[in-house]
Amino acid sequence: MSEEQKLQGYRVIGKVEDFTSFPAPVTIDYDPYYIVKDESAEGEPSFRLICGICPHAGGIVSVHGDEFICPLHYWMFDIQTGESTNMPGAALDCQPLEVIDGQYLLKQA
Questions:
Q1: Any idea what the Cα angle at residue 79 is, between residues 78 and 82, rounded to 5°?
Q2: Strands 31-38 and 103-107
Q3: What does residue 74 show for φ and ψ, rounded to 5 degrees?
Q4: Cα distance between residue 98 and residue 104, in whole Å
Q5: Which residues contact 35 (CB under 8 A, 6 or more apart)?
Q6: How far is residue 4 CA from its own chain's centroid?
Q7: Mean pLDDT by 10 residues, the chain (109 residues)
Q8: pLDDT score recorded for residue 43
Q9: What is the CA radius of gyration of the chain?
Q10: pTM of the predicted model, to two decimals?
């Protein structure tokens, strides 16, 4: 199977070796995202891609301790899930990433 066939249906986010600290900021189509690593499950860690744009007013969130915080109105989001910790029902867009051949990949819809 060719490399192109193997990656069909996925978008390459970056090489695993390029991200050594999490949450790791990454820009996709000029928009800010974070790669987060979850080691809470048994076995291999899992990875997620969390959007860095607040759903409330479009502010760019930043890492503060174990949360993402929007500087516009101080909405706060869990760093692992993207769910708001102070605004019930709000969340940052969060999608699972796969690691294949040393690359973070996002499955295309």
A1: 60
A2: unpaired
A3: 65, 35
A4: 6
A5: 13, 14, 19, 22, 23, 24, 26, 47, 48, 49, 97, 104
A6: 24
A7: 65 95 96 92 87 97 96 96 96 96 91
A8: 77
A9: 15
A10: 0.90
